[in-house]
Task: inverse folding
């Protein structure tokens, strides 16, 4: 007689969004430490360079994920951001929401992660958004994560009939320096990560954009040598 027990039920699974940057690397390490079978997900959305996706794959090898998937979404077709259109990346962030904000990016990525979580029978999604040392993006705030979790549990079979889905953003209230320290505790190799908005094909950072500035500041405040490779 065939067993009615779902073999996945005894496995604690999580979908972890991995961008290739330092925050998502630390997030993956935290999910791994908490005992999840991690299914890593990257989204090729038409970003300026492919080096962050190469970095994402390197990160997944470091933590022996259960599965790694890249999903293609063409956000370049709608543009609206310096990361998805022919708009210059500013060297310093100004007032208001910066031009490097990608419209609806985190909403779209979390929606894809939610769909895969349902397929896998996973009850957790991890993402590396941060509301302290960030560039002013509205989809990096705690209110957004809480709202998406409510949506996830209203809009899915898992939310209505199952145990529900929890969206974890473990770095959301940490400074970049705290993220560096946590990553070192977890054994994250920051040298393989890419954070720069306009890294070259080899993943070397420009050293001038907002992402580079925040990253360098984090290492400096943590009192740790910056392993970033610069052009």
Result:
């Amino acid at each position: 007689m065939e067993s009615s027990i779902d073999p996945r039920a005894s496995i604690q699974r999580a979908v972890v969004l991995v961008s290739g940057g330092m925050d998502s690397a630390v997030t993956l390490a935290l999910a791994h430490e908490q005992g999840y079978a991690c299914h890593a997900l990257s989204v090729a959305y038409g970003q300026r360079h492919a080096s962050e996706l190469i970095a994402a794959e390197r990160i997944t090898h470091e933590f022996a994920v259960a599965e790694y998937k890249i999903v293609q979404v063409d956000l370049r077709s709608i543009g609206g951001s310096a990361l998805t259109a022919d708009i210059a990346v500013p060297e310093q962030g100004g007032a208001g929401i910066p031009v490097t904000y990608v419209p609806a990016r985190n909403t779209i990525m979390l929606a894809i992660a939610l769909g895969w979580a349902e397929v896998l029978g996973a009850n957790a999604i991890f993402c590396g958004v941060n509301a302290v040392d960030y560039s002013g993006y509205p989809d990096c705030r705690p209110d957004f994560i809480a709202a998406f979790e409510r949506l996830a549990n209203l809009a899915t079979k898992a939310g209505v009939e199952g145990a529900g889905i929890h969206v974890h953003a473990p770095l959301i209230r940490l400074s970049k320096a705290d993220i560096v320290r946590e990553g070192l505790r977890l054994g994250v190799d920051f040298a393989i990560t890419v954070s720069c908005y306009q890294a070259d094909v080899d993943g070397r950072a420009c050293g001038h954009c907002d992402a580079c500035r925040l990253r360098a500041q984090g290492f400096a405040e943590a009192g740790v040598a910056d392993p970033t490779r610069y052009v």
Notes: The beta strands are 13-17, 37-44, 67-72, 124-126, 166-168. The chain has one domain: 13-222.
